[in-house]
C-alpha cells in the first residue's frame, strides 16, 4: 500500500511536491485542500483526484471521516502551518509541514504535542536531508574527514525587486519574517548538520533596506554568526537584495563547498580531494520516500526530520531576530 497524501495549499511549492509524488515509490497524490475552486477543478481533472477527496480550507476538518487519506502535506504560507497541523492532527491524519515549521518555538511545541496526543506522525519538509551532495557534506563534517571544521559560510538569497507587493512573503503575519524565515532555514540547517552540533550563541545584523516600498514589515536581509560548542562559527546571510547560493566549510586539513549549494540545484561541489560526482535527483521524491516507510510501518520518524528538528530551527531563527534587534550576543539553549 502507498501512503495516500492530500496536498494542502496549491501554490508554487505544492507543484514541486506533486511532481515528487508522481515519482515516489511509497506515496501517492490522493487529495487536495485549496481555497480556489478553479484550481480544484484543474487539479481534479489533471491528476485524477476524486471529488470526495477535495476540500476547501473551511470544510477541511471533514477529512476526519475520509479513510482514503493518510497524510496531509502542508504547503501553505508559514503563518498557517500551525493551524492546519493542529486541524490535520485532530482529524487523525499524519502531517508533513513545510519549513519553517511555524513562527515561534511555542507554536512548534503545540504542534508536536497535538500530533503526539492524536497518535499521528509529524515531519518537516527538509528535502536536503535526502540529497546526495548534502549527505556528503554531513559525512565530511561530522566524520571530520578533513579534521575539525572551523568556519562555515552558508548564504542564500534571491533578488525580489519584482515581487508582487501583496505577496505573503512580505507579510509579517503570514511569513513570520523576511528571507531569514524563508531561506535562512537552509543556512542554519547546513551548519547544524555539517557540524553535528547545536549552536550555543548567535550574533546578527540587519542589512540595509534598498527597496523601502516592499520591505515595510519584514527584513530585506540579515547576516548572522552561529557559535558552536567546538568553537566552529557558521556565518550566513539570507537576503532579498541579491542572488547568492553557496556553502563553504573550512576544516583543519582541507575544505569542501557547494555552489549552487542550498537552492534546488543542480548542485556543484568539490572538496580538497577533488570534484563531487553525485547524481541529480528529484529532491521531493527522495524526501517523501525517506519519510513514508516509517509512517507505513508505524515506526517513529528519525529525529532529523521530526517536529523536534523544526522546533530547534525556530529557536535559532527567533534568536537571530533577537540578536539583530538588540545588537547583542544571544545565548541559545542547547535542547
Ligand atoms: P505560494 O505563495 O506559491 O503558495 C502558497 C499557497 O497557499 C497558494 O496556493 C495560496 O493560494 C495558498 N494560501 C492559502 N491561504 C493563503 C493566505 N491567507 N495568503 C496567501 N496564500 C494563501 O508559496 P510557496 O512558495 O509554495 O510556499 C509555501 C510553503 O512552502 C512555505 O511555507 C514555504 O516556506 C515552503 N517552501 C518550501 C520549499 C522547499 O524547498 N522545501 C520551497 C519553497 C517553499
UniProtKB/TrEMBL annotation:
UniProt-listed SUPFAM superfamilies: Glyceraldehyde-3-phosphate dehydrogenase-like, C-terminal domain, NAD(P)-binding Rossmann-fold domains
Residue span, GFO/IDH/MocA-like oxidoreductase domain: 135-244
Superkingdom field: Bacteria
Entries under PROSITE patterns matching the protein: TAT
Keywords: Oxidoreductase, Plasmid
Domain Gfo/Idh/MocA-like oxidoreductase N-terminal, first and last residues per copy: 4-126
Cell inner membrane keyword on record: no
Protein name: Gfo/Idh/MocA family oxidoreductase
Amino acid at each position: 500500500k502507498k501512503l495516500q497524501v492530500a496536498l494542502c495549499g496549491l501554490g508554487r511549492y505544492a507543484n514541486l511536491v506533486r511532481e515528487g509524488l508522481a515519482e515516489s515509490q511509497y506515496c501517492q497524490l490522493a487529495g487536495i485542500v485549496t481555497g480556489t475552486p478553479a484550481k480544484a477543478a484543474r487539479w481534479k481533472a489533471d491528476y485524477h483526484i476524486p471529488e470526495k477527496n477535495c476540500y476547501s480550507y473551511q470544510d477541511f476538518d471533514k477529512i476526519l471521516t475520509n479513510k482514503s487519506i493518510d497524510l496531509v502535506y502542508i504547503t501553505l504560507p508559514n503563518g498557517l502551518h500551525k493551524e492546519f497541523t493542529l486541524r490535520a492532527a485532530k482529524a487523525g491524519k499524519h502531517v508533513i509541514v513545510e519549513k519553517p515549521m511555524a513562527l515561534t518555538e511555542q507554536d512548534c511545541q503545540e504542534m508536536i504535542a497535538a500530533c503526539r496526543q492524536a497518535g499521528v506522525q509529524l515531519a518537516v519538509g527538509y528535502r536536503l536531508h535526502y540529497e546526495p551532495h548534502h549527505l556528503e557534506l554531513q559525512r565530511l563534517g561530522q566524520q571530520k574527514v578533513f579534521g575539525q571544521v572551523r568556519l562555515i559560510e552558508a548564504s542564500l538569497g534571491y533578488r525580489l525587486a519584482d515581487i508582487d507587493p501583496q505577496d505573503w512573503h512580505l507579510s509579517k503575519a503570514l511569513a513570520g519574517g523576511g528571507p531569514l524565515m524563508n531561506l535562512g532555514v537552509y543556512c542554519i540547517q547546513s551548519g547544524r548538520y555539517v557540524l553535528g552540533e547545536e549552536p550555543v550563541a548567535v550574533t546578527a545584523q540587519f542589512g540595509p533596506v534598498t527597496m523601502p516600498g516592499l520591505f515595510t514589515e519584514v527584513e530585506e536581509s540579515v547576516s548572522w554568526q552561529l557559535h558552536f560548542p567546538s568553537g566552529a562559527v557558521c556565518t550566513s546571510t539570507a537576503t532579498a537584495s541579491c542572488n547568492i547560493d553557496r556553502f563553504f566549510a573550512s576544516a583543519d586539513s582541507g575544505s569542501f563547498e557547494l555552489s549552487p549549494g542550498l537552492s534546488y540545484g543542480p548542485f556543484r561541489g568539490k572538496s580538497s580531494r577533488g570534484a563531487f560526482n553525485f547524481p541529480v535527483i528529484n529532491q521531493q521524491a527522495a524526501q517523501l520516500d525517506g519519510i513514508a516507510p516509517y509512517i507505513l510501518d508505524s515506526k517513529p520518524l528519525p529525529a532529523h526530520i521530526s517536529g523536534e528538528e523544526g522546533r530547534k530551527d525556530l529557536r535559532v531563527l527567533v534568536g537571530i531576530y533577537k540578536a539583530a534587534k538588540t545588537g547583542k550576543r544571544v545565548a541559545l539553549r542547547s535542547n
